[in-house]
Write a structure and sequence with these properties.
The protein has 105 residues and is an all-alpha fold. The chain is built from three helices and no strands. The chain folds into two domains: 43 residues, no CATH class; 51 residues, no CATH class.
């Protein structure tokens, strides 16, 4: 039998570069989303002559919420429950995972 010896190289600098590239891509995506939302707000102001404000409501796929969620929800008219928003996020995530595991997506 012939055995091949491979020397394992540690590529820590490569991982750091990849991490920074991912961070930059995420920042660019966030900036694009902010620009699109601001454009939509300006369009609403022009079409219907209404005041418009962008209120960030961020809930993670597993239901994790930001510290400022309660304050931001107070600015939205109506009654909102953080528990129901978290449950909706979790159910949506489980629905996507179920479809992927069943091979429908």
């Amino acid at each position: 039998m012939v055995y091949f010896r491979y020397k394992m190289y540690s590529c820590i600098p490569c991982l750091k570069v990849i991490t920074w590239i991912i961070i930059i891509i995420i920042i660019i995506i966030i900036i694009i989303i902010i620009i699109i939302n601001k454009h939509s707000c300006i369009e609403i102001q022009r079409k219907w002559n209404l005041k418009c404000a962008i209120i960030p409501i961020k809930i993670g796929a597993t239901g994790i919420v930001t510290r400022s969620l309660r304050k931001n929800l107070e600015a939205v008219p109506g009654k909102h429950s953080i528990d129901s928003l978290q449950m909706t996020a979790i159910l949506g995530t489980s629905h996507i995972i179920r479809k992927i595991l069943q091979g429908e997506i």
